[in-house]
Design a protein that fits this description.
This protein has 1 helix and 29 strands. With about 350 residues, it is an all-beta fold. It has 3 domains: about 80 residues, no CATH class; about 110 residues, Sandwich (Jelly Rolls); about 120 residues, Jelly Rolls (Sandwich). The chain is globular.
Length: about 350
Amino acid sequence: MDEPVIVQPKPYHVAVEAGNRYLWCSCGLSQTQPFCDQSHVGTTFRPVLYAATETRSVLFCGCKHTREQPFCDGSHNNLVDEYVTDDRPREALLAQTTLAPFDAAGKALLDGGCYVRRHDQLQWTARGGITIAPVISARDGAEFIAQSAVKLESGDSDVFSVTDAEVVLFCLTGEGTVTISGREFPLRPRGGALIRKGEAFRIAGDSGSEPLHLLMTVCPGDASLEIIDSMSEGFDTRYAERTAIYDESSRKVMADRFYQVLIGEGTGSDEVSQFIGEVPQSKAAPHRHLYEEAIVILSGYGTLWTETLRAPVRAGDLIFLPARQEHSLECESPEGMMLAGHFYPAGEPNINY
């Protein structure tokens, strides 16, 4: 037996308890998945011991091909040619769900606190040389992330600081710069930037460019954005490069989908990951994430489905997904869909259950 048996493509969601020890089956032969029942005896496979140091939810690999035993690392997505889709008849799905209405503020509320927000109906206010509109906050039910849309028509903003949180910027349109504790970095469409805890920042638009339009994600979300008198020092030199931009050559394959992590654990973020994803015309099978997530649709159109409700989505729309909320994003546009996402805790966007 050279290869493990693929028990199921998706991982097993398990609530582990601090102080307990778990033997994960690596061979795929066990009848007590995802745990070992000694069925590996006589093979070259051995179970993997996991000793829980805290009580939490984990995702144990079900395909047995993970490189991060015993946890899922998304390897199951590359064992198939097509991403797992929802094969239920559309007529049945429409009959089982209700179209969620958009209220006067452009917000459609779905199951479990999930919602879609129309970008062209955000409420803007002026502050510190920018105009800003809240997208996600604790008032919307978010526990870990806060997100706002930001516009800068011209010139420089004031200097901002968030002492106890990370700030991640995503450039939607326009070009400019972000100065982080004295160091300047470019802002370009479909690019991101990271400001670490305790650092200060200022944004500026390039002359001749269309106005800067950004998403600003703060994590933890209960931290406040402060205006300070001058640019402070204290740039964290351990992470010298703070920006990344979408690049087709840097994409990772996920069956017939693609994604690229712009900001994450490998680029200095302790709290939040930022990614761009490409989705073909399809409807993903209903699934859940352990993380809390914010999504912006960059191109294309489709439908966001939850257990009993659905809402149309289009380019510019903003989506909030609470942790563990079942959902399915359907791309209906023949040319596919591009989206950008931010989620907490930081990790890889190809893992769900």
